[in-house]
Amino acid sequence: MNSLPSSLLRMSAGLAMISALALVAGTVLVPGMAPDRFAASGLQPMHLWALSVLAVALYVFGYSVRRGAPVFGLLAATLILGGGAQLYLTDPLWFPGLKLRPGGPVDWLMVAVLAAEALVAIVATVSLGPGRIAALASARLGSGNVLLFMALTTAFAVPILGYLGHGSLLSYLAHVAIGGALIATHLAILFAMTQVRTPMTGVTRISPIVPAVLTVIASAALSWFAFERMPHVEDEVAYLFQARTFASGALTLPAPPEAAWPGLDYYLIEVQDGRWFSSTQPGWPAFLALGILAGVPWLLNPLLAGLSVLLAYDITRRRAGTDAGDLVALLMATSPWLLSAAASLMPHTMTLALILFAWWLILRSEDTGKRSARAMVIAGLAMGLIFAARPMDGLVIGILTGLWIVTGRRQPWLRAIQYSAGCIAAVMVFLAYNALITGHPLLMPLSDYINRTWGPGANAYGFGPDIGPPGGWLALDLWVGHSPLEAVLNTINSIVSLQFEMLGWPIGSLALLFAYLIWQRKGGFDLAMILVAAVVIVVMALYWYGDTYHLGPRYWFIAAFPFFYLSARGCEALCARVARRDGAECLRLDAAVAVCCLFGILVFMPWRGVAKFHDYNGFYSLFRTEEARGTFGNDIVLFTEVGDPGSALMLNDLNLAGSGPIYLRDTGTMDLEALKQAFPGRRILHYTPDWVRPGARRR
């Protein structure tokens, strides 16, 4: 009889893991094998995602039971299901917020799951003893510090701009209160996990190559399935157009026939003086052109992200030790923020890789003193390339890096001169590009474009009534112009976005970073990372637009490594506090962190892919699919604008020649006779997608 409970536990573990595998097979294989039946069933991709969350929870429970930690497994599964239910009830677009009014049976089921998690949290707290927990927290963490931690996590739980845009202050406060309560519930479960036996029996070192490879695979999968290997925002379309131009061996293209201009008009792409070109900065398109020449432009960012993980690991290892390096690599490899940026066609992953590469060269030369001159020049070139891609990013991080070199130990001024030589060489190429496009080396094509379309100085940094797009951008830019109040609100909103997106944890992505600020001693390299993060936040507050709606706080991405590094150091601070008498408590904390990382990559990131990134803004794979079917032939396709037209325009041949259709936006103002003369032998087809009908779903 004594063996019966353990036998039942082993049996339940096996059934849980088999069920998890069956659910995964069903969510992945069934829609692909029988798409028509799946569509007719009424099931939505979000339903399959919810089943995948159940699969993750079952597998974690089964694994924990098999490792002799059933209570830990039950708590971990509860946390995963509760966090997943919260995501299901969260509006994924623009400013993510919890839906307080469930809209159907599935929504009510998710509310029930959250209620069950709260019940488990209460039972776990009572079992552990509220008095014991309070005494433990007071003795090891400090009651005031714990309250400060909870205040920070709650204050940055809900984005404020969405509510200010609608004048809904009371609704905002209600969401903050509920968001804080949910974070407290998740934290209670997580704390209980650190007080019971863990499935981890010891610390196992793995090669940093493992998280790097995971990063490449995860971001490539997100790019393939969710982003569909296509641009999803206007900037990406412009970058891709410019990269294709560079890959063809040209800086600009001949202007297309004038009759087609209205149908080709697109943000950041212009026809001027007989040339057709993108006004975006050339640094990232030059990199992206390499991917186009290789036939896999969508794979370039995932590879750069994997390289970033390796570089971040070694930088951290050199300044904070191997354990911190391992944790930084793990946090980055499971970060939805990093993986989403890497799955896109935006330049931020490239800038991160170049920053880390430059820093790695500088640190390596400081530590070894070997080949210092070459390393410093190459580091400068990397910083110059960042400037050519995102000038303000390059200026901020380049100056901060230069100050670091000047305050170094080994021949600081000589190394600074070598570094500056590399920076200047890259910047000179950028200035030459400006001169070729705009006629003046100090006038960037992007500045010229914005000045002509929005007004002089509209895209500048600083405050004033004429800064920003004419009329504003609704909730994305609350008031015309830019003011100190908007700077504060944009900064708060970006912190909230970072709290949500960086790690995707149910307890908040900034939990470890807040722990660092509260409980870790500051000094040495840590202070340098704090300085980088602080300067980036302050400088970007001066910009009129605090973009968070697509990839999180992307203007803060050059500070991504400091955020991950300080989070890892925060975990070390917690470990030092809780493991005063028992080193095993650190192991239990590590296990809890591992579950949160698992949630980030297997629950939060797929939710982002299904609920937001797939078919984001409309169109996307539709025209590519129709073209593959031979629907259009060599027609001129005048399409109705029901989504982002860039997903069709980017399929055009660069010279609007050769076989295949030519896509033009149907503006209603085009001269069809002139169009026929400009493209003889091609039929003009007016096209509206089948799904554009009353009641059709559009995001």
- Please count the helical segments: 29
Total E-strand runs: 8
Major beta sheet, strand line-up: 3-5-4
| SSE-based structural type | mainly alpha
Mean pLDDT: 87
Largest sheet: 3 strands, antiparallel
What do these coordinates show?
The protein has 699 residues and is mostly helical. Among the domains are: 196 residues, no CATH class; 106 residues, no CATH class; 67 residues, no CATH class. It is 64% helix and 4% strand. The chain has a 3-stranded antiparallel sheet. The protein has a 3-stranded parallel sheet with strand order 7-6-8. A hairpin with a 5-residue loop joins strand 1 and strand 2.
Outline of the structure:
By secondary structure, the protein is mostly helical.
Map the helices and strands.
Layout: H1 4-33, H2 35-40, H3 45-66, H4 70-88, E1 90-91, E2 97-98, H5 105-128, H6 130-140, H7 143-155, H8 161-165, H9 169-193, H10 209-225, H11 234-247, E3 253-254, H12 261-264, E4 269-272, E5 275-278, H13 283-294, H14 297-320, H15 322-333, H16 336-343, H17 348-368, H18 372-389, H19 391-406, H20 412-438, H21 445-453, H22 484-501, H23 511-519, H24 525-541, H25 560-578, H26 584-613, H27 621-628, E6 636-639, H28 646-649, E7 662-665, H29 672-678, E8 684-687
Parallel strand pairs: 6-7, 6-8
Antiparallel strand pairs: 1-2, 3-5, 4-5
Structure characteristics:
single chain, mainly alpha, globular, disordered C terminus
